[in-house]
Amino acid sequence: MASATSGAVAATLLFIVVLRARGLVRTGPAVVAGLFTLLPLLAPGIGPLAVAGLLILAVDVCIPRPPLLRPPRSGSERERRYGAPLVTSERFADTLSGGWFPPDRRAWGGERMSIPQEGYALGPDDGEALWFNGGLAVLKATAESTGGRFAAVDFRVPKDFASPLHIHRAEDEFFVVLSGEVRVRHGDEVIEAEAGSIVYGPRDVPHGFRVDSPEARLLLFFGPSGVEGFFRDGGKPAGGVHLPPPDEQFVDKEVLTEIATGFQQEFIGPPLPPKE
Question: What is the pTM for the complete model shown?
Fold first, then answer.
């Protein structure tokens, strides 16, 4: 009888350890303490194998585990949270081979995105170079290269380049100053940003910036992608990897505002004024 009890206890403990290792269940020190206290009373004949199982469980509890992640229970909830349709068994093979249809973004043209299987590297001046509103925008990451996940723009701009106060409705943005001095408005706060500074701008929060140094170089990082289409439609292919000539012509404010609306951006106020 004692042998059977010991075997059952050991098997149970081993089963718990396996479940924890796979991240399917969590145990705590209180569980181990309770087992050490109660088992000798409930099963006086507990054998060495069960004791060994308890020791294994005690050690296992000391190993940190990430919190359990439970997927949304419905397709509609998944779409609200991730912006992607729920993958069902009928569509699983199609999803792996052809990607999924991302949310309706003008830049993607409604075409199916294939998800890249490998990364890539670009040099300092590599990428799609555009002249945009007096600056140079080099597209480093796009919907095509990241499967719709991210966009990154190396933005080089002259003194007094200033964006209007605007809102992104479809993506979050990291604003990284690589060189120069830039004032960034984020909500009601104005941040004096210099080389090495980073500002995170969630969607739906008004923001804008103005360059105070002779030139500045910024890395604009967006998630998800799509906003790079705004730079393409509002700019033009660059004649070289340098700032455009001072007399280069660009679309006017009204046209740029209309283009921005197509990419779920809203211009809601004037740029920051020059420093006095």
Answer: 0.60
